[in-house]
Design a protein that fits this description.
198 residues; Aminopeptidase; 7-stranded mixed sheet; 7 strands; globular; GNAT_dom; Acyl_CoA_acyltransferase
């Protein structure tokens, strides 16, 4: 599978029912500890659509079928996050971060997350040529997430406490980084998955 197998659509409010459904999936809810009423979805995702929140949200498609979500933002737009991160690792000027999940449970454990991240890194390179790096903190129990980053070419650069999304976690995070100057991401193989259709 190549990076061209993925399509990233900027979210609209038409995507809210899909996001709501995914966020209620147990494997997503464990680490994306969001409330999921209609009002909560509007609160958490409406700002990206309206331009009042300095992040870009995308629904991820493969073969025309939605399978997950990914967002990106410049760390400098979130000074509190930068302050927390710089206590643990170096944060180069121009760094970005991403958050993501595979929503359809049929697409987990097949390498799809790694391939999705790799494809999105290439999109970030193209869209933000002045960016220096992508830095991603992941809570330690979320092994699938930080392993996907490693397989996509990220390297672990630090470990330490950051406020967790889910209060059942103790806040210990691995922090991974990919420098844009290190060349393109590898093409990553992923098994075929058939997302649920309803």
């Amino acid at each position: 599978m190549s990076v061209d197998d993925f399509e990233f659509l900027r979210t609209t409010r038409d995507h809210f029912p899909q996001l709501q459904k995914w966020l209620r999936e147990p494997h997503v809810a464990r680490f994306w500890n969001h409330e999921t009423s209609d009002a909560d979805i509007e609160r958490d995702f409406g700002g990206s659509i309206d331009g009042t929140e300095p992040c870009e949200d995308f629904v991820v498609l493969r073969g025309g079928r939605p399978l997950g979500f990914i967002q990106r933002y410049r760390l400098a737009d979130y000074p509190e996050d930068v302050e927390l991160l710089t206590a643990l690792v170096e944060v180069p000027e121009g760094s970005m971060s991403i958050d993501y999940f595979i929503g359809d449970p049929q697409c987990t454990g097949r390498g799809v997350g790694t391939a999705m991240i790799s494809a999105f890194v290439e999109k970030c390179r193209a869209d933000a040529p002045n960016a220096s790096a992508i830095i991603v903190p992941v809570v330690v129990p979320n092994r699938a997430s930080w392993r996907a980053l490693e397989k996509a070419g990220f390297r672990r650069v630090g470990e330490g406490f950051l406020p967790p999304d889910n209060p059942i976690d103790d806040g210990t995070h691995y922090i991974s980084r990919l420098d844009f100057r290190n060349g393109p991401s590898r093409n990553i193989r992923a098994d075929v998955c058939e997302p649920h259709t309803q």
